[in-house]
């Protein structure tokens, strides 16, 4: 484990004014909190946070981020609390640690709507403070470096999540070194035979040809000396996964792969970048179509560099990247360069992107997605795709994902242009709408009044924005027909389970499925974008009745000492799944309150009585009383139907009391025994869909005992 003074020395290398006292305090606090915890390898757990902090020093990040790395698992895995961290290290650090904790709990590799919702939370966390993601990426990188200590199935799961989510995210943030290392570490787990094969071929190639990197680096330096250009030249073999990906994409073997070496020239000025380019193109033949100028057209994450591929020594293709020292710093750190120190000062790099503007540009169209599929399309295209830059006839730049077509271009300008598109010209020549656009092309869209999007367009476009606009137009065109068909499909589905499909049931189902209204739900049902089963399950989800592995209610709350007992507060009736806190009472043990309970305000000055608690993560028994305040129609059979609905959700009614009787409505309090917050939500959703229920809410006013 890196000693604290060595860690402080790493920070002082780039930030002489670092708060060494606070870093020592965080180091000592983290070590104390994790002192009885160990990693799968048997090492003390605190070696991990220290290693994450060291990784972040390589990006020359500020003190708050380094301290967050040291503490990033304390709130989640130890007795440390947000309040305590804030008191000792300040609100900024506490917010960052809390943000990393919430990210750790997100299941980003899940599927469907849950994955979409978790990605929304990911981007919300990023928008609040991007340093949360930087710590999480450092955390994932160290976990991947030490993954061998985990079980094989856990290794595979973590490696797949890294390959699908964290590596592309690092790349999208401009941290390409981290993306490459994450990909290669995941590749080592997911396909070790392929990786070892590539490494063996590299060794054979080096034995046959000698040190190619050293030779070509020398050739480039010699050319620059002739031109009188001062620059640093570096070369390297590309990572095994990068080579494997090219082999798979081009369907060729290793022997036919040409550009397996990469070289980088770091110049003193931007003008020298173009002088270097001219010198290299004079000495070696440029490969057509392999030139990119990201200096004149920077990427959205601040990346600037010139890329060119040439036929070098012995005809071998090599890629050369040319950039200034400041451009190189942003290329290494990406968006993180905003916080990086240079010569003991922060924020002097003119190419560093404002994180707030970057995240706003990344997610500007996410909120327009109408459902989870559209949101995931937006997100994955933004995260995983490189960009091409095209020009309007007036010379304005339009950015598209690689593989974008004239239709994508049309919708990127305006939905109206896309909807009425009938053709396109690229560099003055008429081309099919499915043509894949390339960097630097000028595109002109031809429109016609009365033109409407075609169903086949969905197979042509690649951007989430275009797909969403086309689907919306197609839905509107046949909307009435789909609504009529959807209503019939829904009626049959509800009748099949013995329920009536009322307007209120449809409205409640739409809300549960995050759809704007009942008409839109019926339209999607009729167009087969949604199944009748989805609608029915939104109102009446199946409850698992398997009692095995249920948590003992006496041990349902974690965080108590051995001699402490607990009871739920009647004022807020907390249930598993909700955030909780305990208040100690003499002779009564600990009373558990929901974190938002108003009664807690009475104990603000008595912090010594507060106990940080959380529910056991296992499956709980349906034994937790919750009082529901239900307003229902005064009509025959209504109460019976309400009781039946509660019974269908596998919940027991422990008591019932009429609070108010009117000629048209009754207000009743029902004590229901639930398993957890999700179970409670299912019960309330089912009741809310009943047409004779006017209102339903949780009674949490301190008088819940019936």
How would you summarize what this structure contains?
The chain has 706 residues and is of the alpha+beta class.
Describe what you observe in this structure:
This protein is of the alpha+beta class and 706 residues long. The chain is globular, with a radius of gyration of 30 Å. Mean pLDDT is 83; it is low at 543-548 and 702-706. A five-stranded mixed sheet has the order 1-2-5-4-3. Strands 14-18-16-17-15 form a five-stranded mixed sheet, with no helix packed on it. The protein has a four-stranded antiparallel sheet with strand order 21-22-20-23.
**What summary fits the major beta sheet?**
5 strands, mixed
Q: Which band does the percent of strand residues land in?
A: 15-25%
Question: Roughly how many Å apart are the termini?
Answer: 58 Å
Query: Oligomeric status of the shown chains?
Result: single chain
The tally of beta strands, per DSSP, is 23
**Residue share in helices?**
40-55%
Radius of gyration (Å):
30 Å
From the spread of the alpha carbons, the general shape counts as: globular
> Structural class, from helix and strand content?
alpha+beta
Low-confidence stretches: 543-548, 702-706
Mean pLDDT: 83
Physical arrangement of strands within the biggest beta sheet:
1-2-5-4-3
Number of helices: 27
């Amino acid at each position: 484990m890196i000693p604290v003074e060595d860690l402080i020395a790493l920070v002082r290398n780039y930030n002489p004014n670092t708060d060494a006292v606070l870093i020592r305090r965080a180091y000592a606090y983290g070590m104390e909190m994790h002192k009885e915890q160990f990693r799968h390898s048997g090492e003390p757990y605190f070696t991990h946070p220290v290693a994450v902090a060291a990784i972040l020093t390589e990006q020359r990040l500020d003190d708050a981020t380094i301290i967050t790395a040291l503490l990033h698992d304390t709130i989640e895995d130890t007795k440390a609390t947000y309040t305590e961290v804030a008191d000792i290290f300040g609100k900024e650090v506490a917010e960052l640690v809390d943000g990393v904790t919430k990210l750790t709990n997100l299941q980003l590799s899940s599927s469907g709507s849950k994955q979409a919702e978790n990605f929304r939370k990911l981007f919300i966390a990023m928008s609040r403070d991007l340093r949360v993601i930087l710590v999480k990426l450092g955390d994932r990188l160290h976990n991947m470096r030490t993954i061998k200590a985990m079980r094989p199935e856990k290794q595979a799961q973590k490696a797949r999540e890294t390959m699908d989510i964290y590596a592309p995210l690092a790349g999208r943030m401009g941290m390409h070194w981290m993306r490459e290392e994450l990909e290669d570490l995941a590749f080592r787990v997911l396909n070790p035979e392929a990786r070892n094969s590539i490494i063996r071929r590299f060794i054979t190639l080096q034995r046959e040809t000698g040190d190619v990197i050293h030779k070509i680096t020398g050739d480039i330096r010699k050319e620059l000396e002739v031109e009188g250009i001062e620059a640093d030249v570096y070369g390297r073999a590309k990572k095994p996964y990068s080579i494997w990906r090219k082999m798979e994409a081009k369907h060729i073997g290793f022997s036919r792969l040409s550009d397996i070496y990469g070289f980088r020239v770091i110049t003193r000025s931007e003008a020298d970048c173009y002088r270097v380019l001219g010198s290299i193109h004079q000495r070696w033949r440029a490969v057509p179509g392999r030139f990119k100028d990201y200096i004149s057209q920077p990427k959205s994450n601040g990346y600037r560099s010139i890329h060119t591929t040439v036929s070098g020594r012995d005809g071998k293709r090599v890629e050369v990247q040319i950039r200034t020292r400041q451009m190189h710093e942003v290329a290494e750190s990406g968006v993180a360069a905003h916080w990086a120190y240079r010569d003991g000062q922060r924020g002097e790099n003119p190419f560093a992107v404002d994180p707030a503007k970057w995240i706003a540009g990344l997610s500007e169209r996410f909120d327009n997605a109408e459902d989870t599929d559209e949101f995931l399309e937006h997100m994955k295209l933004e995260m995983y795709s490189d960009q091409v830059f095209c020009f309007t006839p007036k010379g304005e730049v339009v950015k598209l994902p690689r593989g974008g077509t004239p239709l994508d271009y049309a919708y990127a300008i305006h939905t109206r242009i896309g909807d009425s598109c009938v053709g396109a010209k690229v560099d003055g020549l008429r081309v099919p709408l499915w043509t894949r656009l390339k960097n630097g092309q000028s595109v002109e869209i031809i429109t016609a009044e009365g033109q409407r999007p075609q169903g086949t367009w969905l197979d042509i476009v690649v951007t989430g924005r275009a797909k969403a606009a086309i689907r919306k137009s197609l839905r509107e065109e046949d909307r009435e027909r789909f609504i009529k068909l959807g209503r019939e499909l829904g009626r049959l589905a509800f009748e099949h389970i013995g329920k009536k499909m009322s307007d209120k049931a449809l409205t409640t189902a739409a809300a549960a499925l995050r759809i704007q209204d009942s008409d839109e739900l019926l339209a999607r049902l009729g167009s087969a974008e949604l199944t009748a089963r989805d609608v029915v399950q939104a109102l009446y989800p199946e409850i698992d009745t398997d009692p095995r592995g249920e948590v003992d209610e006496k041990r349902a709350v974690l965080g108590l000492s051995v001699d402490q007992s607990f009871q739920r507060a009647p004022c807020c009736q907390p249930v598993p799944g909700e955030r909780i806190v305990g208040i100690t009472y003499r002779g009564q043990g600990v009373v558990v309150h929901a974190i938002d309970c108003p009664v807690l305000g009475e104990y603000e000055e008595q912090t010594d009585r507060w106990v940080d608690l959380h529910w056991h993560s296992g499956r709980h028994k349906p034994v937790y009383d919750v009082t529901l305040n239900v307003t229902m129609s005064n009509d025959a059979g209504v109460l019976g139907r309400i009781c039946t609905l509660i019974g269908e959700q596998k919940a027991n009614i422990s008591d019932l009391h009429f609070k108010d009787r009117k000629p048209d409505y009754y207000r009743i309090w029902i004590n229901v025994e639930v398993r957890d917050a999700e179970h409670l939500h299912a019960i309330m959703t089912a009741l809310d869909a009943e047409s004779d229920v006017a209102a339903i809410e949780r009674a949490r006013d301190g008088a819940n005992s019936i």
